[in-house]
Structure formats: structure tokens, C-alpha cells
Amino acid sequence: MNDSNINTLEKMRQFLAGTDQVELVIDGRIQRYDFIKRTLMRFKYRSLHRSDKGLLLHYIARISGYSHVQVKRLVASYLKHGKLRWRHTVTRGFAKRYTDKDCRLLAQTDTLHGTLSGHATKKICERAFVIFEQPEYERLAGISVSHLYNLRKSKSYQRRRRHFEKTRSKPSDIGQRRKPAPNDQPGYIRIDTVHQGDLDKIKGVYHINAVDEVTQFEIIASTQKISEQFLIPILIHMLEQFPFVIKGFHADNGSEYINRAVVKMLNKLLIELTKSRARHCNDNALVECKNGAIVRKHLGFVHIPQKWAPLINRFTTDFLNPYLNFHRPCFFAETKTDKKGKQIKTYPYRCMMTPYEKLKSLNNAETYLKAHFSFAMLDDLAYKISDNESAKQLNEEKFKLFKTIFEQK
């Protein structure tokens, strides 16, 4: 390499800046040592300032291909001895006892027996050599159990056989595992996530469905992802849409809700977090029924790309949620107790009403409302248009929504 034109530190700095993305390496150790020695002498390394020495070392490392630590070691050797010596050393290291052939044999044995424990596999190898006189097991017969696991991690083994374990569940201490007890008070919501399908391994939009247990007041929102960055703002937006104070937040055991970020948000709002119990499939049944009867009915099953989440959010906030809460009647249970003390729930026609009407029918209903809500204001929303007009408006906006999505998909 001819670098005679690089005769100043400034030119060296320009050279390094201009070749940052280019690989320049001198072949051969002798040539590299000659280059390092020549460069140190040409720029008088001993007389340079500390910053200039660093620049020179960077230049040498860039051209020679050595690491910065190795260059400093060679320069120190040159300053001490006045020359660079190439020391020939022969290092055998640790002898390799188990070969690739042994790894392949171990992989074959594990395939036959279904990956037994280390002790059992060692015993099988030992029996194969001692009892059944299979000479290929000679080395594996004396292997230690710990080193047998090391061979299972080797590339030779894993190229022939890989073993996958199921994800192990980890108990979480977040939230109380129990069924909520609203005691006929609104503000205890059930929440669940509905995924809008995958397409070519690309995730679709996520719908968040929250339903109040007593009034069936329902808020639906959409988010691009269920990570903390996207989910927390959506949850806050949903809680703000409920006209009454939220006191309880019940979810299944999904990690999108059972995590520290959601707990922190709920603690600020003084909302209690509960989660479903094991082997109690009805704990979150209310919102899961609404997933099929409401979310899937209006938003379907077809894959919707995540980028459309804000547009769907506007649709649910402005049209779907008002229709569900002010214009769509729901059945409400009437509980009767028989002579044996067993409680039986029935759903008579006279108990059918909209969620808003159910809210108004509660004792002392005004006390449950948020400070900036009133029944006079809510009545304006509920009776501004008829049920049929609201449904017609909902269908028209739904048609526009899906036309926009699928024409520009």
C-alpha cells in the first residue's frame, strides 16, 4: 500500500472520514508489521500529543485490520524494543474428546428415545457399549451428565435435531383473582380484546371492548397494537367516555391488561383491578358475548390493516358507541330464589331496555355520574334522533368506513 501522500495528521483525518464505509486491510502479518513500524517512524509517534496519538492509532487499526487493543499492544512492544517481533507460539489448548460424530450419534439416540433426562440418556449410552457391544458408543458411555447437555447445545447436534419446549406459564401477583361484586352499582366494567385477523403473517387491528356489568353500557375502541405505547392512551380514552365513575376493571389473564403499566394507570384513577379465576369460564362471559354479538357483527372477521385503527376509532366513538348505549335494547336478568334457596335468573321482556335507560332506573342514579355529566345532557344525546335514524346513520357510516378501507387497502 502506497500511503506516502498522507503526510500530515489533517490528511489522515480526512482519509479516515472519507473511507469510513470502505474495508481496507493489508494482507499478511509481515506486511502489516512493516506498515505499523513505518507509520510510527514517519509521524514520530513519541513526540505527538495524546489526541494525535489516538488519531494515529485509529489510522493504523483502520488499515491493518487489527483491533484497537492489539494495535496498542504492538505499539507498546515497538516503543520498548525498537522493533516489532513476531513470536511463533504453538497453543494446543484443550484436547477435544467428543467429536462431531459423537454429537450426531447423541442426536440420533435422543430422536429414538424422545430426549430423555441426562441421566437416562447416559445410562442408555453406557448399556449400548457395555451390554450390547456397540463400539460407536465408546466415548459417550463415559460422558458426564453435565457435558451431555453441553453436546446437546452444540451446532453439530442442533443441525440434526432441535427440541422445543412449551412456554411455561408464570404466576403473576398483579390484580385480585376473583369475580367482581358490583352490588347493583354501575362502574364495574369487563374488558377484552378482539383481534381483526392476520394476513400473510401481518397483524391486523385490535378492538378493545369494555362493558359495564350492571347497565351493559358498552364502549368499543380500536388500536394498532396492544403494547403499552398504544394501549394506555386508548384505555384512558375509553374510560373517559363512560358517563359514570369507574370503580372496577376486570379482565382475563392476558398480559395486555395484567401488567405494571395498566396497574399504574388504574391506581391513579383509584380503580380496582381484578382478573378471571382458573376454571371459571363465566367470569368474563358478559364481554365475550358482546364480542360476537356486537364487535364481530359490526366490524366483521376480515383482516383490517393496523393503520386504519384511528379511522375505526372515530367511527366507534361518533356512531357505534352512541347507538349501542342509547338506542339498542338489551335483556337484563331478574333473579328469583326458589324454596330450596337456589337463585334462578330469568330474562323477561319487561326488563328489556337500553343501557342508558337501565342507568336512569337505578336508585340514586345521579350519584353515580361524573361531575361533568348530567342526565339533562345525556337526554339530549339519547333522544336527539330516533332509534331507526341512529341505526340508519350507523349503517351509512359503516359503509363509508369499509369502502375507504378496502378501496385503499
Residues in helix, %:
40-55%
Name given to the CATH architecture of the largest domain: 2-Layer Sandwich
Q: How many helical stretches?
A: 15
CATH homologous group name of the largest domain: Ribonuclease H-like superfamily/Ribonuclease H
Basic shape:
elongated
Largest beta sheet, briefly? 6 strands, mixed
Pattern of helices and strands:
HHHHHHHHEEEEEEHEHEHHEEHHH
Over all CA atoms, what is the radius of gyration?
36 Å
Chain-wise SSE layout:
Elements: H1 9-18, H2 29-42, H3 50-64, H4 68-81, H5 100-113, H6 118-130, H7 145-152, H8 155-158, E1 176-177, E2 188-195, E3 198-199, E4 202-203, E5 206-212, E6 218-223, H9 228-241, E7 248-251, H10 260-268, E8 272-275, H11 285-299, H12 309-326, E9 334-337, E10 343-346, H13 355-361, H14 375-382, H15 387-407
Parallel strand pairs: 1-8, 2-7, 7-8
Antiparallel strand pairs: 2-5, 3-4, 5-6, 9-10
Concise description?
The protein has 409 residues and is an alpha/beta fold.
Task: Summarize the structure in words.
The protein is an alpha/beta fold and 409 residues long. The protein has 3 domains: 9-81, no CATH class; 100-158, no CATH class; 184-409, Ribonuclease H-like superfamily/Ribonuclease H (Nucleotidyltransferase, domain 5), CATH 3.30.420. It is 45% helix and 11% strand. The protein contains 15 helices and 10 strands. Strands 1-8-7-2-5-6 form a 6-stranded mixed sheet, with helices on both faces. A two-stranded antiparallel ribbon has the order 3-4. A two-stranded antiparallel sheet has the order 9-10. Helix 6 (118-130) crosses helix 7. The longest helix has 21 residues, at 387-407. It starts with 8 loop residues before the first helix and ends with a helix. The model has no long low-confidence stretch (mean pLDDT 87).
